């Protein structure tokens, strides 16, 4: 079972891993969210996005992205 502490620790660990990898083009100022907020992966991603201070944009109709 995932707790809030588990999600926070995993998100912080993921941010540290990505910073150490020094990926070019990784840092963005905006995240476009298309998964439902009830989806656990979307919650995990959003937690990392919020911890980095990135702006979140929600797409109401994902079909328009294609």
Write the layout of secondary structure elements.
Blueprint: H1 4-21, E1 30-33, H2 40-52, E2 55-58
Parallel strand pairs: 1-2
The Cα radius of gyration reads 13 Å
Strand content: 5-15%
Helix content: 40-55%
Q: Got a strand count?
A: 2
Give the number of domains. Answer: 1
Mean pLDDT: 79
Low-confidence stretches: none
Basic shape:
flat
Q: Structural class of the secondary structure composition? A: alpha+beta
Total helices: the number is 2
Largest sheet: 2 strands, parallel
Order of helices and strands: HEHE
Distance between the termini: 35 Å
Provide the spatial order of strands within the biggest beta sheet. Answer: 1-2
Describe, in plain words, how this protein is organized in 3D.
47% of the residues lie in helices and 12% in strands. The chain has 66 residues and is α+β, with helices and mostly antiparallel strands. It has one domain (4-65). It has a two-stranded parallel ribbon. It starts with a helix and ends in an 8-residue tail after the last strand.
